[in-house]
C-alpha cells in the first residue's frame, strides 16, 4: 500500500517538474538564439546599398587602341555610377596592353575608375606596372589612356629594372612621332646601378 502511495506521489511530482523543466530549456534556447545572432547576417543599410547599385562580378572589357595595341581590363567587381553612366567603379583591376610593335604592359591596382566615354582608366591605391622588357614598377596612382595607349603615373614610383633599382617622381609611356614606344622617367630620378656579370 505504501509502495503505491510513493509511486503516486512520484507521478504527481513528475507532472509538475517535467513541464517546468521543459519551459526552462525552451526559454534558454530562445535567449541563446537572440544573443548569439547569425554571423552571416547582412545589415539592412548594407543590403540597401548593394541592391541600389548596378554591379557586375568578374567583368572583362577588351578593345584596341588607336595605334593597334590590344588591351583587356578585368576586375573582381564593377559598379556603375548612378550620376554618370559613363563612370564605372572597379575593384581589384588588372589591365594588359599587348603592344603591336613594342613592349607588353601589365597594370594591377586595388581600385580604379573607368570612363567609357573618354576611354580613360584611373588606377588608385597601390599600382604595379610590369613590362615584358624587365621593368617592375610600384606607385600610388596612374592613368591609362586606352585610346592612345599612353600611361602616366601620378605619384613617386619605385622601379626594378634589368640594370638596377631606382626611384623617380614621374613616368610616362607613350609613342613618339615615329610611332615607337618610349618610357620616360623624370622628376628626381635616383639610380642604384647594378653591373651585370
UniProtKB/TrEMBL annotation:
Name listed for the protein in its UniProt record: LPS export ABC transporter periplasmic protein LptC
Pfam families: LptC (PF06835)
The organism's place on the tree of life at top rank: Bacteria
Amino acid at each position: 500500500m505504501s509502495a503505491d502511495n510513493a509511486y503516486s506521489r512520484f507521478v504527481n511530482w513528475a507532472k509538475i517538474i517535467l513541464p517546468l523543466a521543459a519551459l526552462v530549456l525552451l526559454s534558454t534556447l530562445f535567449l541563446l538564439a537572440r544573443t548569439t545572432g547569425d554571423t552571416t547576417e547582412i545589415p539592412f543599410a548594407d543590403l540597401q546599398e548593394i541592391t541600389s547599385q548596378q554591379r557586375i562580378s568578374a567583368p572583362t572589357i577588351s578593345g584596341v587602341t588607336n595605334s593597334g595595341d590590344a588591351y583587356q581590363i578585368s576586375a573582381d567587381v564593377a559598379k556603375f555610377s548612378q550620376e554618370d553612366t559613363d563612370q564605372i567603379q572597379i575593384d581589384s583591376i588588372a589591365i594588359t596592353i599587348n603592344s603591336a610593335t613594342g613592349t607588353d604592359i601589365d597594370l594591377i591596382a586595388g581600385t580604379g575608375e573607368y570612363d567609357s566615354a573618354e576611354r580613360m582608366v584611373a588606377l588608385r591605391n597601390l599600382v604595379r606596372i610590369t613590362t615584358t622588357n624587365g621593368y617592375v614598377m610600384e606607385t600610388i596612382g596612374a592613368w591609362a589612356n586606352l585610346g592612345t595607349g599612353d600611361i602616366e603615373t601620378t605619384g613617386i614610383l619605385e622601379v626594378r629594372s634589368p640594370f638596377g633599382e631606382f626611384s623617380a617622381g614621374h613616368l610616362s609611356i607613350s609613342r613618339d612621332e615615329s610611332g615607337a614606344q618610349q618610357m620616360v622617367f623624370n622628376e628626381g630620378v635616383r639610380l642604384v646601378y647594378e653591373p651585370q656579370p
